[in-house]
Design goal:
Chain lengths: 382, 164
Amino acid sequence: MAWESGVQFMIKKEVVVIGGGPSGMAAAIEAAKRGAEVLVIDANEKAGGQLFKQIHKFFGSSEHGAGVRGIDIGRDLLKEAEELGVEVWLNSVAIGLFAEKQIAVETGTDDAEKIVRVVEGEKIVIACGASENVVRFQGWTLPGIMGAGAAQTMINANRVLPGKKILMVGSGNVGLIVSYQLMQAGADVVALVEAAPNIGGYVVHASKIARAGVPIYTRHTVLEARGEGRVKEAVICEVDGKWQPVPGTEKVIEVDAIAIAAGLKPLAELAIMNGCKTKFDPILGGWAPLHDENMESSCSGIYVVGDVTGVEEANTALEEGRLAGVAIAAALGKITAEEAETEKKKIWDRLDGLRSGPHGEARMKAKDRQLADFRQLSAAEI
Amino acid sequence: MALENMGYLTLEELKAQTVYPTEERFRKGPVAVIECTHEIPCNPCEGSCKFGAIKIGDPITNLPGLVEANCIGCGICVAQCPGLAIFIVDKTYSDTQGTVSFPYEYNPVPEVGQEVDAVDRSGKVVCRGTVVKVQNPKSYDRTPVVTVAVDLDQVETVRSMKRL
Ligand SMILES: Cc1cc2nc3c(=O)[nH]c(=O)nc-3n(C[C@H](O)[C@H](O)[C@H](O)COP(=O)(O)OP(=O)(O)OC[C@H]3O[C@@H](n4cnc5c(N)ncnc54)[C@H](O)[C@@H]3O)c2cc1C
Ligand code: SF4
Ligand code: SF4
């Protein structure tokens, strides 16, 4: 072993899950339920991932806990994991993933001493989620300009209002939901701009904020942020069919914060570092690791689940996590292959349901492509 | 179309795209108006109605359809819908006024008797309304349902109130 002093001796676990969001917790629960010894590593002070910022009621089928708030789904997951004896390391970041399935984990907060440990997992699940895309425009580095996800963390996790008069950029579900939650927290959303001709997210979310008086400007973008020491004004304008600003359509709005919801991209670095084969697909948010029907990547024993494999939703993340958990239990010999097949079939049926309809169709096709690409890959290697 | 670029539908569009209650049904008392027009994977409304008045079926992306004869206007579905897309409209409240019940997840929650600014689907203030009921039992899971009385000619227009 190449690790020098300062690093604690190797800890071995049957299953190590990196990321304690819905996908990671679901994988941990399904594997633990069937007798596997599971460790979850999460960068935050509380596991649950995005769920702990989602104070709204979730869509979905009654079987998926639809109508239940994200935070409550998260709380139930943590409780179930605890009851099953899943070990969770909080404030712990996987900083490296190396051959022989070794993970370097740094634990601690910035105000205390940090320790680095190396954990070896017989099976590893990468469930790191996604990160926010940035949009650059003149003045975009002024204080008061932030990602919508950051604004959501401020209000729902830290209970701090990022501003009182906020411009939202982007009309996907994140832009729409965070706008709603900013108003719930007491701010005004003075406008929402979207460069595309149509609203990107679910219209019921859009209707909520329209009803609350938020003007939605489609075919519009933000040109410039102005202010000294902090953003005070935003210049928005119309865009043409090629997304180019139309001169003479500029409007100046008074704001004290700008939140940007320009999409998410898979946090696939650990998978890439480990040599997992990836592919770029704009529908999935960018570069995402390929995987088979068990969510196993091109590196044997390394599974990829949730937003890491393509940005979707908490419900699909949960199901992908469950798939990996069941597959891992079978691979470790905790259940028979037949038992695993029956269970996996049920999960795949639910996943197909979640990816149906006009909103899911593109994702369904993209996920099918991902599986097909993986099959091609294995065929080529054989 | 208003929905895709402004975020809401006009009443005419709604009537064309959803199973909107008939005038005959409105005359009988409170009824659910389901303003959900996007085929999203969602169905808690169907399960929440014990009277079988909301049908989605399989696949889950079907639009919810109101079976108006079964609906008693109880309002249970209003708080259960994560899209906050269901309203109860009562055109029989009095000779001159009707009521609209809507989900309202903002603080402070208005009080019964309070006069509020009633807004339409675009957030525009259209008239004053009087709060006649505020329901927030545990089963609504922190989605209070507020009922305001407005002039009869506004009940199909009013869908919320200005934040306090
Ligand atoms: C504003 C908003 C609203 C949403 N609303 C809905 C909704 O209504 N319905 C729905 O189904 N979905 C919704 N989603 C989507 C949903 O939250 C995500 O798709 C889902 O959380 C993805 O789950 P995940 O487990 O893949 O990742 P995440 O939930 O992002 O969890 C990843 C976890 O991994 C940890 N992590 C990352 N890197 C490391 C590392 N190197 N070491 C250790 N830990 C690490 C992170 O700290 C995090 O806890 C919403 C998302 C947003 C942003
Ligand atoms: S108001 Fe009551 S009866 Fe009518 S659809 Fe809703 S839950 Fe069913
Ligand atoms: S619960 Fe609401 S958003 Fe979901 S299908 Fe029913 S009406 Fe539409």
